Amino acid sequence: MFFDVFCTGVFYPRASMRTTIVDIAQAAGVSPATVDRVLNLRPGVHARTRRRVLAAAHAIGYLDPVQESTGAAPAAPVELAFIVPAGTNTFLDNLSDHLAAVGERRAAEARVKIHRMKAFHPESLAAGLRGLIDTADGVGLIALDHPEVRTAIREAAAAGTRIVTLVSDISDVPRHGYVGIDNRAAGRLAGHLLGRFLRQARGSVAMFAGSLRYRGHAERASGFRRILAEEFAGLTLLETREMQDDVEACYREAAALLRSTPDLAGIYNVGAGNRGIVRALEEAGRVRDLVVIGHEVTPHTRRFLLSGALDAVIDQNPAQEAEVAVEQLLLAVRGAGHPRRIAPIRAQAIFRENLPEQ
């Protein structure tokens, strides 16, 4: 049996000659003195910090099940929270369900809680994040690109909460990675599909977005706009309409466009609200007259693809996204090191002919 000596004179069982409590401290982002208190079951350490230290000790091989019985308690499940916008967005409902399912499967490692917050409201998102600082070891959130949100993320990170963004990223904040598709590439793919479906047709194209405060929506819009300018000069892109992912707002705007824009040839919906767009097309008797590209395979978009109301959707696989997000937060809490680049989730073009099984 090897032992490690700290300045207090206490001896700690060691799993390896190469692993020390200094390594644990660095992995967990705490001081060696804090590690000393945790391993010797002394008071004065926040429960979240204690869990992080023990998780780091397990992750780097300092503790094993036999050694745990000599003193240190086994690592308790870490507390993970995910902040997901509320509303009528079916994709976000699906993502929440998948996150909850991953939490159930990995209950021995993590307690996963889902918090639904007011959509497109940076103040609510920031307040929700601040409310989790004292209870959550790690937080995953769909970021809004806003100073209030950046400030809240920095405060949470400074307090020791590990942060992962998913679906939509945010710049200049201390987070341990982004889990999601390359949204700019997804927008370019949507533009390529719409332009190729229309071939050399001339006319107007409308673009609907939930909110350009979502970096993901802004990047999709930018990619779409860019490829139309590069490759499809005969198409005129109308002003982007921010619909807050609201079905009724999408319906009213699409109906108005169909009345006011005789040469309307296509619609790209960056976010949710496809039900409203299709309803307007159906009422106008123009379901197959326009090329319509959307996002995410849901029960609604599946039905619209089969009916021909949608020509294609860009899907990002929420089940995989949930798995990766939970795993990355667990790695961050266990002390996997500095923020890292995570490989993007694959964006896939889905048509009626290649619809995946439900």
Walk me through the structure.
This protein is α/β, with parallel strands linked by helices and 358 residues long. The protein folds into three domains: 3-68, 434 Repressor (Amino-terminal Domain) (Orthogonal Bundle), CATH 1.10.260.40; 78-180 and 318-345, 3-Layer(aba) Sandwich (Rossmann fold); 183-315, Rossmann fold. It is built from 13 helices and 14 strands. The protein has helices spanning 21-28, 32-39, 47-59, 65-68, 90-105, 122-130, 147-158, 183-198, 215-231, 247-260, 274-284, 299-307, 318-333, and strands at 3-5, 11-13, 78-85, 110-117, 138-141, 162-166, 178-179, 203-209, 235-237, 241-242, 264-269, 291-295, 312-315, 348-350. Strands 8, 9, 10, 11, 12, 13 and 14 form a seven-stranded mixed beta sheet that branches. Helix 1 crosses helix 3 (47-59) and helix 5 (90-105) crosses helix 13. Mean pLDDT is 88; it is low at 1-17 and 65-72.
- The assigned CATH architecture of the largest domain is 3-Layer(aba) Sandwich
Strand content: 15-25%
Helix count, DSSP H or I runs of 4 or more residues: 13
Overall number of strands: 14
- Runs in which pLDDT lies below 50 for 5 or more consecutive residues are 1-17, 65-72
Domains, number: 3
Would you tell me the structural class of the helices and strands?
alpha/beta
Q: Please summarize the sheet with the most strands.
A: 7 strands, mixed
Helix content: 40-55%
Brief account:
With 358 residues, the protein is α/β, with parallel strands linked by helices.
Please specify the SSE layout and strand pairing.
Blueprint: E1 3-5, E2 11-13, H1 21-28, H2 32-39, H3 47-59, H4 65-68, E3 78-85, H5 90-105, E4 110-117, H6 122-130, E5 138-141, H7 147-158, E6 162-166, E7 178-179, H8 183-198, E8 203-209, H9 215-231, E9 235-237, E10 241-242, H10 247-260, E11 264-269, H11 274-284, E12 291-295, H12 299-307, E13 312-315, H13 318-333, E14 348-350
Helix pairs in contact: 1-2, 1-3, 5-13, 6-7, 8-9, 10-11
